[in-house]
Amino acid sequence: ISQQMMAGQNVTTEDIKSARKRAEENQHLSMLESRKQLPIYAYREVLLQAVRDHQVIIMVGETGSGKTTQVPQYLHEVGYSEMGMIGCTQPRRVAAMSVAARVAHEMNTKLGNEVGYSIRFEDCTSEKTKIKYMTDGMLLREFLTEPDLKSYSCMIIDEAHERTLSTDILFGLIKDISRYREDLKIIIASATLDAEKFSEYFDNAPIVKIPGRMFPVDILYTRAPEADYLDAAIVTVLQIHITQPPGDILVFLTGQEEIETAEELLLFRTRGLGSRIRELLIRPIYATLPSERQAQVFEVTPPNSRKVVIGTNIAETSLTIPGICYVIDAGFCKQTNYNPQTGMESLLVTPISQAMANQRAGRAGRTQPGKCFRLYTAWSYKHELDETTIPEIQRTNLGTVVLLMKSLGINDLLHFDFMDPPPEKSLIRALEQLYALGALNDRGELTKLGRRMAEFPLDPMMSKALLASEKYGVSEEVMTVCAMLSVNNTIFYRPKDKAVHADNARLNFARGGGGDHICLLNVYNQWVETNYSTQWTYENFVVMRALKTARDIREQLAGLCDRVEIEKTSNPHNTEGVRKAMCAGFFYNTAKLDSSGAYKTVKQKHTVHIHPSSCLVKLEEMPRWVLYHELAFTSKEYMRQVAPIKAEWLTEIAPHYYKTKDVEDSTTKKMPKLTGRF
Ligand code: ADP
Ligand code: MG
Questions:
Q1: Distance (Å, rounded) from C-alpha 70 to C-alpha 199?
Q2: CA 20 to 30 Å from 489, out of 82, 429, 524, 632?
Q3: For the segment 147-172, what is each residue's pLDDT rounded down to a tens digit?
Q4: Nearest bound ligand to CA 59?
Q5: Are 41 and 70 in contact (CB under 8 A)?
Q6: pTM of the model
Q7: MF terms per GO, please (predicted)?
Q8: DSSP state of 38
Q9: How far is the CA of 103 from the centre of ligand 1 (A)?
């Protein structure tokens, strides 16, 4: 409108302003209309009545029916927000942010005012906030400062079917406080059929079902197993694009790297298609994607083009992307797996469950009949996929939550009211680990150190490293390392056409041989020295956004360090001190180079490899003893973020875990160069 008016001669800015305002109002009105079209709207009264009549209700409805965006608004509209905030938890950060943005938009307010969100290291709420979306992990931490959640009038535990570790613990805590906070309204929202189980757990709470509008979805399987699902996915996208009627495509892959590869391959292969084929808009979506690019998946596809969204299981139930008619399901997702026997946790590409496969297929039939292409065989679906996904609590390291629960005063963990209890071995392992870290005493009670560790929203190993840094006089440095490690492996980029330059830039940061932790420290410090120069980040192939995130995280860690009275000390040249502090936290994650040239974890003798992205890969001689930040399994079991250490540190720093025989090293003498070097 304003452009048309600009073309005219005698238009005042006032006219333009009021036209713009009218356009915005119209847009807002049509949004209000579309709110009424959602399946949940017909159930508004039923829902509100159930909330009035009961303290806890279970709400079940197909993805896209309006549970997440509408229900908090309904509760707000009828006045619950006058008694306290309306909270809504999400298992994923991206979902919390994007849903909050959507609802702020629907309510015509600025994000962070009436509608806000809170995720780890980022609080976008204010005094005015009435509706607060947050990750389940953040609500868990809120129990530390507000054990009765008194600032809330309603709490929605959303995406309950995902059964994340935090959500499972929240179930127990919420059930517990519901007994003495009779005014707190609780809604457990789920996209699938576990409703009965939730209801039983919450003392037979009533179930409100929101029937979705579902169109039939044709399921197509591959005839033979696919050797390379990524390639199969690309070929399928192109086939759909060339042969099928209009409609957007949603592809499920497992993670950022895969999605980026798929994006590149698709760009490359569509170039050759010529101008007669419609444009294919490629839109990735995964947790660490910058939010302005995340928003692109929701943009309406322009006529004469087709959108293909390539995402992780984030698009399974927590985000609804309009316009999808075709789903391509590779059949895998990334899952943490934990072996309580060995204490090893790793992120594995794992086959999905039948329940997940069905959710994925459902994404194709929201607005019209659709098709789902499964890149696996019908036999495999039937016989190889588990019926449902195992709850995270049964396949993950419990260190963080056990520390949190101990801080909340829950001492008898074995008898905590879990919906599905974790394996006893995992619990015991977590207790042992916290004992080894010094967070618990030999009676399993929280120590002063443990109390300080619990203040940090970090893995206990990382909190311990921070607390230990004081002793080595390097708390400023370790704070930086922890902040950089918390920015998921996204610090460096490596464009294919400038790979050599990028590698050289990176090698410069690794000079001195301190390994990846020190490399990250050098990057950050140099960026600070250049006064946060953008030019400098370009020249050094460092992702500025990642550094800015690290700076924010660092600031918060600094605040928390003040709170637990960690003295701020700095010595940029004491890289050994930094590595010793890291060792004080991560002494479980150590490996030793054996005579065959392979790394084995020190205690369990499990073969592991240095990840190709590590700066240590470039050394002619590998360090004999290393500490790693985490294990990731792709084609091999890889250690990510690796630092050389000395064997004697282990007995010095963690004497209750390492005995002299563990670190005896008959071959050290044969490799004299190394001792000099590190
Ligand atoms: P549920 O929680 O039941 O899965 P949601 O409340 O998330 O459903 O979504 C309801 C509807 O709101 C979706 O069908 C979609 O049309 C719309 N919607 C949600 N988020 C966005 C967004 N960011 N942009 C555009 N539309 C959205
Ligand atoms: Mg939802």
A1: 22
A2: 429
A3: 999 999 999 999 999 999 999 999 99
A4: 1
A5: yes
A6: 0.86
A7: ATP binding; hydrolase activity; RNA binding; RNA helicase activity
A8: S
A9: 9
Bridge partners of 492?
A: 542
How much distance in Å is there from the Cα of 320 to the middle of ligand 1?
5
Token pair for 329: 């399901």
* Nearest ligand 1 atom to alpha carbon 319: 7
Atom of ligand 1 minimally distant from the CA of 98: 23
Instruction: Point out which residues pair with 630 in neighbouring strands.
Output: 640
**Ligand 1 probe mutation, 35, 316, 320, most atoms within 8 A of CB:** 320
Residues having CB closer than 6 A to ligand 1 are 38, 61, 63-70, 98, 102, 298, 320, 322
Alpha carbon of 91 to ligand 1 centroid (Å): 16
Determine which residue's CA is closest to atom 5 belonging to ligand 1: 66
SS (H, E, C) 370-393: EEEEECCCHHHHHHCCCCCCCCHH
Q: Do residues 673 and 621 touch, judged by C-beta distance below 8 A?
A: yes
Q: Give percent above pLDDT 70 in the chain.
A: 95
What are the CA-CA distances from residue 41 to residues 102, 188, 233, 450, 546 (Å)? 17, 18, 37, 48, 40
3-state SS assignment for residue 629: strand
CA distance linking residue 407 with residue 102, whole number of Å? 35
Candidate of 69, 89, 190, 316 to mutate for ligand 1, largest count of ligand atoms within 8 Å of Cβ: 69
State the ligand closest to the CA atom of 162.
2
pLDDT at residue 3 tops 60: no
Q: Report how far ligand 1's centroid is from the alpha carbon of 66 (Å).
A: 6
Ligand that lies nearest to the alpha carbon of residue 71, given by its number in the listed order: 1
In one letter, which amino acid is 145? T
Q: Give burial (CB, 10 Å; 0-12/13-18/19+) of 41.
A: middle
Contacts of 227 (CB under 8 A, 6+ apart): none
How many Å apart are CA 196 and CA 676, to the nearest integer? 64
Distance 90 CA to ligand 2 centre (A): 8
Cα–ligand 2 centroid distance for 135 (angstroms): 13
Looking at ligand 1, which residue's alpha carbon is closest to its atom 13? 64
User: Residue 68 C-alpha to ligand 2 middle, in angstroms?
Assistant: 4
Find the ligand nearest to 111 CA: 1
Question: Is a pLDDT exceeding 60 seen at residue 670?
Answer: no
517-522-524-530 Cα dihedral, nearest 10 degrees: 180
Q: Is the dihedral of CA 179, 180, 186, 188 positive or negative?
A: negative
Quote the CA–CA distance of 589 and 76 in Å, as a whole number: 48
Q: How far is the CA of 319 from the centre of ligand 2 (A)?
A: 7
Coil, strand or helix: which one is 339? Answer: strand
Distances (CA, A) of 663 to 200, 652, 675: 51, 11, 15
- This model of the complex carries an ipTM of 0.98
Nearest to 318 by CA among 69, 19, 654, 79: 69
Phi and psi, residue 614, nearest 5°: -75, 145
Over residues 275-306, the pLDDT tens digits come to 778 899 999 999 888 878 888 898 889 988 99
- DSSP secondary structure letter of residue 157: E
What's the one-letter identity of residue 127? E
Question: Is the CB of residue 65 less than 8 Å from the CB of residue 38?
Answer: yes
Taking the CA of residue 62 as reference, the ligand 1 atom at the shortest distance is 3
* 377: its two tokens: 């065989």
Laid out side by side, the sheet with 115-119 consists of 122-124, 115-119, 131-135, 85-90, 152-157, 185-190, 56-61, 207-210
Q: Report CA-CA distances (Å) from 288 to 253, 334, 392, 524.
A: 15, 14, 21, 20
